[in-house]
Amino acid sequence: MKKLALIFLLAFTGFTAMAQEKTGVTITVTIENVLKEGGTILGSLHTENTFMKGAGIQNTGAPAKKGEVTITFYNVQPGTFAVMVMHDENANKTMDMADNGMPLESYGTSGEMEAFGPPSFTSAKFEITDTDQDLRIRF
Questions:
Q1: Rounded distance, CA 72 to CA 44, Å?
Q2: 7 by DSSP, 3-state: which?
Q3: Which of 3, 7, 21, 124 could lock onto 111 through a cystine, CB 3.0 to 4.6 A?
């Protein structure tokens, strides 16, 4: 009986030790209008300092499937952010471009997309406070 009690005590201690306190909010991003199967939907969470300059402060991905794909960013602290997503069809982790500079893979950002030219942080930014957030981005 002592062994059984010890096993339960160790198991309970293990579960509570692995439980992490939530230290920020969760941002759930649903990407709409994914046109092709295969490859990966890559997503990155950016500050103004990282936007359009490489990796975000958090980066994630999910297998691409037609329709909608969801990605999630965890433990995000309050502040101003933007999300960028792309369909990396060939798994090279970069946006493929045509010779004229036009993207060959689907992409999108939070907020309003620019009609011409690259996205800007000003049009893509949103505020995080103390509540979880759901965003929708359409390719």
A1: 10
A2: helix
A3: 124
